[in-house]
Amino acid sequence: MTIEWQNFYADRTRHMKGSQIRQYFALTERPEVISFAGGFPGNEFFPSDDISAALAKLVKEESKLALQYTSTEGHFELRNYLAGKMNSNGASINADHVIITDGSQQGIDLLSRVLINSGEAVLVEEPAYIGGMGAIKSYGGVPVGIPMDSNGPIPAKMEVIINDQIRKGNRPKVFYTVPNFQNPTGITTSAERRRAVLDLAYRYNIIIIEDDPYGELCYEGSVPESYMSIDKKEQVIYLGSYSKILIPGIRIGWMAGPRQLIEKVSLAKQTTNLCSSSLGQQLAFRLSDEGYVDRHVEKLIGLYRNKREIMLKAMKQYFPTDIEYSKPRGGFFVWVKFPAYYPPSKDILEYALQHNVAYVHGEGFYSNSIGGSHGARFSFSQPTAEQISIGIATLGKILHEVKANLTLKAVGQ
Ligand code: PMP
Questions:
Q1: Interval 271-307: pLDDT, tens
Q2: CATH number of 14-45+294-407: 3.40.50.2020, 3.90.1150.10, 3.20.20.70, 4.10.375.10?
Q3: Ligand 1 atom 5: the closest Cα is on which residue?
Protein backbone atom coordinates (compact mmCIF):
# COMPACT_ATOMS: atom_id res chain seq x y z
CA MET A 1 0.00 0.00 0.00
CA THR A 2 1.37 3.41 -0.89
CA ILE A 3 1.29 6.20 1.65
CA GLU A 4 -1.38 8.88 1.18
CA TRP A 5 0.89 11.83 1.90
CA GLN A 6 -2.04 14.18 1.96
CA ASN A 7 -3.16 12.60 5.24
CA PHE A 8 0.19 13.23 6.88
CA TYR A 9 0.58 16.94 6.23
CA ALA A 10 0.11 19.36 9.14
CA ASP A 11 -2.91 21.65 8.92
CA ARG A 12 -0.71 24.71 8.40
CA THR A 13 0.54 23.36 5.07
CA ARG A 14 -2.85 23.80 3.46
CA HIS A 15 -1.92 27.44 2.81
CA MET A 16 1.16 26.41 0.81
CA LYS A 17 0.32 26.48 -2.85
CA GLY A 18 2.60 26.69 -5.87
CA SER A 19 2.03 29.71 -8.06
CA GLN A 20 0.24 29.10 -11.31
CA ILE A 21 3.22 30.37 -13.27
CA ARG A 22 5.47 27.56 -12.09
CA GLN A 23 4.15 25.21 -14.72
CA TYR A 24 5.56 27.57 -17.32
CA PHE A 25 9.04 27.76 -15.88
CA ALA A 26 9.92 24.27 -17.12
CA LEU A 27 8.96 25.35 -20.63
CA THR A 28 10.87 28.60 -20.42
CA GLU A 29 14.04 26.77 -19.43
CA ARG A 30 14.27 24.93 -22.75
CA PRO A 31 17.55 26.09 -24.34
CA GLU A 32 15.89 27.18 -27.60
CA VAL A 33 13.50 29.50 -25.73
CA ILE A 34 14.36 33.19 -25.35
CA SER A 35 12.98 33.84 -21.91
CA PHE A 36 11.90 37.18 -20.49
CA ALA A 37 10.26 35.25 -17.66
CA GLY A 38 13.05 34.57 -15.18
CA GLY A 39 13.91 37.80 -13.37
CA PHE A 40 17.36 36.42 -12.52
CA PRO A 41 20.53 38.54 -12.76
CA GLY A 42 22.53 38.29 -15.99
CA ASN A 43 24.84 35.26 -15.71
CA GLU A 44 27.49 37.05 -17.73
CA PHE A 45 27.67 39.82 -15.11
CA PHE A 46 28.80 37.53 -12.28
CA PRO A 47 32.37 38.52 -11.31
CA SER A 48 33.47 34.87 -11.05
CA ASP A 49 37.24 35.45 -11.01
CA ASP A 50 37.10 38.11 -8.32
CA ILE A 51 34.76 36.01 -6.20
CA SER A 52 36.94 32.99 -6.62
CA ALA A 53 40.04 34.95 -5.51
CA ALA A 54 38.19 36.53 -2.56
CA LEU A 55 36.87 33.14 -1.43
CA ALA A 56 40.32 31.52 -1.64
CA LYS A 57 41.78 34.35 0.45
CA LEU A 58 38.98 34.13 3.00
CA VAL A 59 39.28 30.41 3.50
CA LYS A 60 43.05 30.68 3.86
CA GLU A 61 43.23 33.72 6.11
CA GLU A 62 39.92 33.82 7.95
CA SER A 63 38.96 30.17 8.12
CA LYS A 64 37.60 30.38 11.66
CA LEU A 65 35.25 33.21 10.80
CA ALA A 66 34.31 32.03 7.35
CA LEU A 67 33.86 28.29 7.97
CA GLN A 68 32.42 28.17 11.49
CA TYR A 69 28.79 28.75 12.55
CA THR A 70 28.05 32.30 13.49
CA SER A 71 25.37 34.07 15.56
CA THR A 72 21.76 33.94 14.40
CA GLU A 73 21.76 37.72 13.87
CA GLY A 74 24.89 37.42 11.71
CA HIS A 75 28.48 38.65 11.72
CA PHE A 76 28.77 41.91 13.64
CA GLU A 77 31.11 43.47 11.05
CA LEU A 78 28.61 42.94 8.25
CA ARG A 79 25.65 44.18 10.30
CA ASN A 80 27.67 47.20 11.34
CA TYR A 81 28.66 47.89 7.74
CA LEU A 82 25.04 47.61 6.58
CA ALA A 83 23.79 49.91 9.35
CA GLY A 84 26.40 52.47 8.20
CA LYS A 85 25.34 52.04 4.58
CA MET A 86 21.71 52.63 5.50
CA ASN A 87 22.60 55.63 7.68
CA SER A 88 24.43 57.21 4.78
CA ASN A 89 21.06 57.04 2.98
CA GLY A 90 19.22 58.80 5.80
CA ALA A 91 18.38 56.01 8.26
CA SER A 92 19.35 56.22 11.89
CA ILE A 93 20.23 52.73 13.07
CA ASN A 94 23.10 50.62 14.42
CA ALA A 95 24.18 46.97 14.11
CA ASP A 96 21.58 45.89 16.71
CA HIS A 97 18.83 46.95 14.33
CA VAL A 98 20.09 44.58 11.62
CA ILE A 99 19.76 40.82 11.19
CA ILE A 100 21.33 38.91 8.29
CA THR A 101 18.94 36.65 6.36
CA ASP A 102 19.18 34.03 3.61
CA GLY A 103 18.27 36.56 0.94
CA SER A 104 15.40 38.97 1.42
CA GLN A 105 13.01 36.11 0.71
CA GLN A 106 13.80 34.69 4.13
CA GLY A 107 13.16 38.14 5.55
CA ILE A 108 9.64 38.15 4.13
CA ASP A 109 9.07 34.62 5.37
CA LEU A 110 10.29 35.40 8.91
CA LEU A 111 8.24 38.58 9.09
CA SER A 112 5.15 36.72 7.95
CA ARG A 113 5.77 34.14 10.63
CA VAL A 114 6.30 36.71 13.35
CA LEU A 115 3.59 39.22 12.41
CA ILE A 116 0.73 37.48 10.63
CA ASN A 117 -2.02 35.32 12.06
CA SER A 118 -3.96 32.96 9.85
CA GLY A 119 -6.91 34.74 8.24
CA GLU A 120 -5.48 38.26 8.67
CA ALA A 121 -5.63 40.74 5.82
CA VAL A 122 -2.20 41.89 4.61
CA LEU A 123 -1.99 44.89 2.31
CA VAL A 124 0.11 44.37 -0.82
CA GLU A 125 0.57 46.25 -4.06
CA GLU A 126 -1.66 45.34 -6.98
CA PRO A 127 0.11 43.75 -8.82
CA ALA A 128 2.65 42.45 -6.27
CA TYR A 129 5.80 40.30 -6.06
CA ILE A 130 4.61 36.69 -6.25
CA GLY A 131 7.23 35.40 -3.80
CA GLY A 132 6.14 37.99 -1.23
CA MET A 133 2.49 37.03 -1.51
CA GLY A 134 3.48 33.36 -1.40
CA ALA A 135 5.25 33.81 1.94
CA ILE A 136 2.33 35.81 3.36
CA LYS A 137 -0.18 33.19 2.20
CA SER A 138 1.89 30.30 3.54
CA TYR A 139 1.17 31.62 7.06
CA GLY A 140 -2.51 32.04 6.29
CA GLY A 141 -2.29 35.80 5.57
CA VAL A 142 -4.79 37.06 3.01
CA PRO A 143 -3.18 39.52 0.56
CA VAL A 144 -5.39 42.50 -0.21
CA GLY A 145 -4.24 44.50 -3.24
CA ILE A 146 -3.75 48.28 -3.30
CA PRO A 147 -4.13 49.63 -6.86
CA MET A 148 -1.16 51.49 -8.31
CA ASP A 149 -0.53 54.06 -10.99
CA SER A 150 2.80 55.14 -12.42
CA ASN A 151 3.63 56.92 -9.11
CA GLY A 152 3.04 53.87 -6.94
CA PRO A 153 0.22 52.77 -4.61
CA ILE A 154 -2.72 55.21 -4.65
CA PRO A 155 -3.25 56.55 -1.10
CA ALA A 156 -6.95 57.50 -1.51
CA LYS A 157 -7.76 53.97 -2.70
CA MET A 158 -5.56 52.53 0.01
CA GLU A 159 -7.57 54.35 2.68
CA VAL A 160 -10.87 53.10 1.26
CA ILE A 161 -9.54 49.54 1.27
CA ILE A 162 -8.23 49.83 4.83
CA ASN A 163 -11.63 51.10 6.04
CA ASP A 164 -13.39 48.39 4.10
CA GLN A 165 -11.26 45.73 5.81
CA ILE A 166 -11.85 47.35 9.21
CA ARG A 167 -15.61 47.25 8.59
CA LYS A 168 -15.30 43.56 7.82
CA GLY A 169 -13.57 43.09 11.17
CA ASN A 170 -10.22 42.38 9.54
CA ARG A 171 -8.04 45.37 10.42
CA PRO A 172 -4.81 45.14 8.39
CA LYS A 173 -1.56 45.41 10.38
CA VAL A 174 0.99 45.21 7.59
CA PHE A 175 1.63 46.74 4.16
CA TYR A 176 4.20 44.89 2.05
CA THR A 177 5.72 47.09 -0.67
CA VAL A 178 8.58 47.12 -3.20
CA PRO A 179 8.96 50.89 -3.67
CA ASN A 180 11.92 50.92 -6.08
CA PHE A 181 11.60 49.46 -9.60
CA GLN A 182 8.90 47.16 -8.38
CA ASN A 183 8.65 43.50 -9.28
CA PRO A 184 6.62 43.06 -11.50
CA THR A 185 5.79 46.55 -12.88
CA GLY A 186 9.11 48.45 -12.67
CA ILE A 187 7.21 51.30 -10.95
CA THR A 188 9.01 53.50 -8.42
CA THR A 189 6.85 55.02 -5.68
CA SER A 190 7.28 58.82 -5.72
CA ALA A 191 8.48 60.76 -2.67
CA GLU A 192 5.00 62.33 -2.18
CA ARG A 193 3.34 58.93 -2.31
CA ARG A 194 5.78 57.52 0.22
CA ARG A 195 4.89 60.33 2.61
CA ALA A 196 1.17 59.85 2.03
CA VAL A 197 1.39 56.07 2.51
CA LEU A 198 3.45 56.52 5.67
CA ASP A 199 0.84 58.98 6.98
CA LEU A 200 -1.84 56.37 6.42
CA ALA A 201 0.35 53.82 8.18
CA TYR A 202 0.61 56.13 11.19
CA ARG A 203 -3.10 56.91 11.20
CA TYR A 204 -4.23 53.32 10.92
CA ASN A 205 -1.42 51.74 12.92
CA ILE A 206 0.07 49.74 10.06
CA ILE A 207 3.63 48.47 9.77
CA ILE A 208 5.38 48.92 6.41
CA ILE A 209 7.62 46.15 5.09
CA GLU A 210 9.88 47.89 2.58
CA ASP A 211 11.44 45.28 0.29
CA ASP A 212 14.23 46.89 -1.71
CA PRO A 213 16.40 44.47 -3.69
CA TYR A 214 16.59 46.73 -6.79
CA GLY A 215 17.02 50.29 -5.45
CA GLU A 216 20.75 50.48 -6.19
CA LEU A 217 20.24 49.45 -9.81
CA CYS A 218 19.09 52.90 -10.87
CA TYR A 219 19.75 53.78 -14.52
CA GLU A 220 18.23 57.25 -14.66
CA GLY A 221 18.06 59.97 -12.00
CA SER A 222 17.90 58.76 -8.40
CA VAL A 223 15.41 57.00 -6.15
CA PRO A 224 13.39 58.89 -3.51
CA GLU A 225 14.34 58.53 0.15
CA SER A 226 13.39 55.16 1.58
CA TYR A 227 10.39 54.70 3.86
CA MET A 228 12.86 53.78 6.57
CA SER A 229 14.67 57.12 6.18
CA ILE A 230 11.52 59.24 6.40
CA ASP A 231 9.88 57.19 9.16
CA LYS A 232 9.74 58.92 12.54
CA LYS A 233 7.86 56.30 14.51
CA GLU A 234 9.77 53.03 13.95
CA GLN A 235 6.96 51.65 11.84
CA VAL A 236 9.12 50.52 8.92
CA ILE A 237 11.03 47.28 8.43
CA TYR A 238 13.55 47.36 5.58
CA LEU A 239 14.73 44.34 3.57
CA GLY A 240 17.92 44.46 1.52
CA SER A 241 19.77 41.85 -0.53
CA TYR A 242 23.11 41.04 -2.13
CA SER A 243 21.36 38.95 -4.80
CA LYS A 244 21.05 41.67 -7.43
CA ILE A 245 24.07 43.85 -6.50
CA LEU A 246 26.55 40.95 -6.26
CA ILE A 247 25.32 37.34 -6.61
CA PRO A 248 22.25 35.43 -5.42
CA GLY A 249 24.33 32.26 -4.91
CA ILE A 250 25.58 33.34 -1.46
CA ARG A 251 21.95 33.84 -0.32
CA ILE A 252 22.75 36.87 1.82
CA GLY A 253 20.23 39.60 2.56
CA TRP A 254 19.42 41.71 5.61
CA MET A 255 16.54 43.08 7.61
CA ALA A 256 16.68 46.41 9.44
CA GLY A 257 14.04 47.46 11.92
CA PRO A 258 13.20 48.31 15.52
CA ARG A 259 15.39 46.41 17.95
CA GLN A 260 12.53 44.68 19.71
CA LEU A 261 11.22 43.29 16.43
CA ILE A 262 14.69 42.19 15.30
CA GLU A 263 15.06 40.24 18.56
CA LYS A 264 11.77 38.43 17.90
CA VAL A 265 12.76 37.71 14.31
CA SER A 266 16.06 36.35 15.57
CA LEU A 267 14.18 33.85 17.77
CA ALA A 268 12.16 32.74 14.74
CA LYS A 269 15.31 32.47 12.61
CA GLN A 270 17.12 30.37 15.21
CA THR A 271 14.86 27.39 14.64
CA THR A 272 14.92 27.90 10.88
CA ASN A 273 18.63 27.81 10.08
CA LEU A 274 20.61 28.62 13.28
CA CYS A 275 22.52 31.16 11.21
CA SER A 276 23.02 32.30 7.64
CA SER A 277 26.11 31.17 5.71
CA SER A 278 29.26 32.42 7.44
CA LEU A 279 31.19 32.11 4.22
CA GLY A 280 28.62 34.17 2.35
CA GLN A 281 28.55 36.81 5.09
CA GLN A 282 32.33 37.13 5.19
CA LEU A 283 32.49 37.37 1.41
CA ALA A 284 29.77 40.03 1.37
CA PHE A 285 31.48 41.97 4.15
CA ARG A 286 35.01 41.90 2.68
CA LEU A 287 33.86 42.86 -0.80
CA SER A 288 31.59 45.61 0.57
CA ASP A 289 34.11 46.99 3.03
CA GLU A 290 36.86 47.36 0.43
CA GLY A 291 34.47 49.19 -1.91
CA TYR A 292 34.35 46.35 -4.43
CA VAL A 293 30.55 45.94 -4.32
CA ASP A 294 29.98 49.67 -4.95
CA ARG A 295 32.33 49.58 -7.93
CA HIS A 296 30.59 46.45 -9.20
CA VAL A 297 27.18 48.12 -8.88
CA GLU A 298 28.49 51.03 -10.99
CA LYS A 299 29.40 48.53 -13.72
CA LEU A 300 26.07 46.71 -13.42
CA ILE A 301 24.19 49.98 -13.84
CA GLY A 302 25.83 50.53 -17.24
CA LEU A 303 25.29 46.93 -18.34
CA TYR A 304 21.63 46.62 -17.30
CA ARG A 305 20.86 50.12 -18.58
CA ASN A 306 22.00 48.93 -21.98
CA LYS A 307 19.71 45.88 -21.85
CA ARG A 308 16.81 48.06 -20.77
CA GLU A 309 17.40 50.43 -23.70
CA ILE A 310 17.46 47.53 -26.12
CA MET A 311 14.21 46.10 -24.77
CA LEU A 312 12.34 49.42 -24.74
CA LYS A 313 13.62 50.33 -28.20
CA ALA A 314 12.61 46.93 -29.59
CA MET A 315 9.14 47.19 -28.01
CA LYS A 316 8.71 50.60 -29.59
CA GLN A 317 9.87 49.31 -32.96
CA TYR A 318 8.08 45.95 -33.09
CA PHE A 319 4.99 46.02 -30.85
CA PRO A 320 1.65 47.23 -32.21
CA THR A 321 1.12 50.81 -31.03
CA ASP A 322 -1.94 49.97 -28.91
CA ILE A 323 0.19 47.94 -26.49
CA GLU A 324 1.34 49.86 -23.42
CA TYR A 325 4.47 49.12 -21.43
CA SER A 326 6.18 50.69 -18.42
CA LYS A 327 9.52 52.46 -18.80
CA PRO A 328 11.35 51.59 -15.60
CA ARG A 329 14.21 53.82 -14.48
CA GLY A 330 15.96 50.84 -12.88
CA GLY A 331 15.68 47.20 -11.79
CA PHE A 332 14.88 44.28 -14.06
CA PHE A 333 11.23 44.54 -15.15
CA VAL A 334 8.97 46.00 -17.80
CA TRP A 335 5.22 45.56 -17.34
CA VAL A 336 3.25 45.15 -20.56
CA LYS A 337 -0.49 45.80 -20.86
CA PHE A 338 -2.35 44.29 -23.78
CA PRO A 339 -5.61 46.08 -24.62
CA ALA A 340 -8.77 44.44 -23.29
CA TYR A 341 -9.84 43.50 -26.82
CA TYR A 342 -6.72 41.29 -27.20
CA PRO A 343 -6.82 37.68 -26.02
CA PRO A 344 -5.65 37.17 -22.40
CA SER A 345 -1.87 37.38 -21.99
CA LYS A 346 -1.88 33.73 -20.95
CA ASP A 347 -3.24 32.72 -24.38
CA ILE A 348 -0.74 34.94 -26.17
CA LEU A 349 1.99 33.27 -24.10
CA GLU A 350 0.95 29.81 -25.41
CA TYR A 351 1.36 31.16 -28.90
CA ALA A 352 4.67 32.87 -28.06
CA LEU A 353 6.02 29.63 -26.60
CA GLN A 354 5.34 27.87 -29.90
CA HIS A 355 7.72 30.47 -31.35
CA ASN A 356 10.20 29.97 -28.51
CA VAL A 357 9.64 33.24 -26.67
CA ALA A 358 8.48 33.40 -23.03
CA TYR A 359 7.29 35.96 -20.50
CA VAL A 360 5.21 35.73 -17.34
CA HIS A 361 1.49 36.30 -17.76
CA GLY A 362 -0.24 38.60 -15.30
CA GLU A 363 -2.75 36.82 -13.03
CA GLY A 364 -0.24 35.39 -10.56
CA PHE A 365 0.81 38.90 -9.49
CA TYR A 366 -2.73 39.83 -8.45
CA SER A 367 -3.94 39.14 -4.95
CA ASN A 368 -7.39 38.18 -6.17
CA SER A 369 -6.09 36.23 -9.23
CA ILE A 370 -8.74 37.76 -11.45
CA GLY A 371 -6.98 41.00 -12.30
CA GLY A 372 -3.96 40.97 -14.54
CA SER A 373 -5.44 38.84 -17.30
CA HIS A 374 -4.04 41.29 -19.90
CA GLY A 375 -0.82 42.13 -18.07
CA ALA A 376 2.59 40.51 -18.50
CA ARG A 377 6.02 40.81 -16.87
CA PHE A 378 9.07 41.03 -19.09
CA SER A 379 12.52 40.84 -17.53
CA PHE A 380 15.49 42.21 -19.47
CA SER A 381 18.10 41.13 -16.92
CA GLN A 382 18.97 37.62 -18.03
CA PRO A 383 18.72 37.36 -21.82
CA THR A 384 21.67 38.72 -23.80
CA ALA A 385 21.32 41.96 -25.76
CA GLU A 386 21.01 39.94 -28.98
CA GLN A 387 18.34 37.63 -27.50
CA ILE A 388 16.35 40.65 -26.35
CA SER A 389 16.27 42.11 -29.87
CA ILE A 390 15.38 38.80 -31.51
CA GLY A 391 12.83 37.81 -28.85
CA ILE A 392 10.95 41.12 -28.90
CA ALA A 393 11.00 41.21 -32.72
CA THR A 394 9.52 37.67 -32.82
CA LEU A 395 6.88 38.61 -30.31
CA GLY A 396 6.12 41.79 -32.21
CA LYS A 397 5.35 39.68 -35.28
CA ILE A 398 3.09 37.42 -33.24
CA LEU A 399 1.27 40.40 -31.73
CA HIS A 400 0.68 41.95 -35.14
CA GLU A 401 -0.82 38.60 -36.24
CA VAL A 402 -2.99 38.48 -33.13
CA LYS A 403 -4.17 42.00 -33.88
CA ALA A 404 -4.84 41.24 -37.54
CA ASN A 405 -6.96 38.24 -36.47
CA LEU A 406 -8.98 40.50 -34.18
CA THR A 407 -9.69 42.82 -37.08
CA LEU A 408 -10.73 39.89 -39.27
CA LYS A 409 -13.07 38.63 -36.56
CA ALA A 410 -14.52 42.13 -36.11
CA VAL A 411 -15.49 42.28 -39.80
CA GLY A 412 -17.04 38.82 -39.52
CA GLN A 413 -14.57 36.73 -41.53
N1 PMP B 1 11.84 40.61 -3.18
C2 PMP B 1 11.69 40.87 -4.48
C3 PMP B 1 10.83 42.02 -4.88
C4 PMP B 1 12.32 40.07 -5.44
O5 PMP B 1 12.14 40.36 -6.74
C6 PMP B 1 13.12 38.99 -5.02
C7 PMP B 1 13.83 38.09 -6.01
N8 PMP B 1 13.24 37.84 -7.19
C9 PMP B 1 13.25 38.76 -3.66
C10 PMP B 1 12.60 39.60 -2.77
C11 PMP B 1 14.07 37.65 -3.12
O12 PMP B 1 15.43 37.82 -3.37
P13 PMP B 1 16.58 37.22 -2.53
O14 PMP B 1 16.00 36.26 -1.54
O15 PMP B 1 17.48 36.56 -3.50
O16 PMP B 1 17.23 38.37 -1.84
A1: 999 999 999 999 999 999 999 999 999 999 999 999 9
A2: 3.90.1150.10
A3: 183
